[in-house]
Amino acid sequence: MKIAPELAALETGDDKYSGKLAAKNLRKQLKAAFPGVRFSVRNPYHASVNVAWTDGPTTAEVEPIVSPYKGGSFDGMEDSYSQAKSAWSETFGGPTISAPRGSFRTPC
Fold first, then answer.
1. CA separation for the pair 92, 12 (Å, rounded)
2. Is the pLDDT of residue 105 over 50?
3. Separation CA 55–CA 19 (nearest Å)
4. Rounded to the nearest 5°, which phi and psi values hold at 97?
5. 36-75 pLDDT per residue, tens
């Protein structure tokens, strides 16, 4: 498989859905995109990744990096989670990712 040069630093492997592979790759991408900002990327339980930070980028700025890793979506009307496999999640990991949450101060 040929991978784009900007994605060459990301890891691939068989551990696609536990969340560990996605957490490793998210840490790398967030560090590269927002140097100096400390992110908490945790895999609290199987197939789940939480992303949090204080100060730095807005949620809207982080979302484009996080969203390719999402392995599906929650349907509140049906109270169920729908899995959605993609080429990205098959290559770089795709667990359930909670909405990124950051707290930041707007400059005065």
1. 5
2. no
3. 25
4. -115, 125
5. 999 999 888 777 888 999 889 999 999 999 888 887 777 7
Q: Which residue has the tokens 């993609």?
A: 86
Please give the full DSSP string across the chain, using - where no structure is assigned: ----GGGTTS---S--SSSHHHHHHHHHHHHHHSTT--EEEE--STTEEEEEEESSS-HHHHHHHHGGG--EEEETTTTEEEE---HHHHHH---EEPPPEEE-PPP-
Q: Are strands 39-42 and 96-97 parallel, antiparallel or unpaired?
A: unpaired
Q: Which amino acid is at 105?
A: R
Half-sphere exposure of 74 (CA within 13 A, CB side): 7
pLDDT of residue 83: 72
Six token digits for residue 63? 């979302």
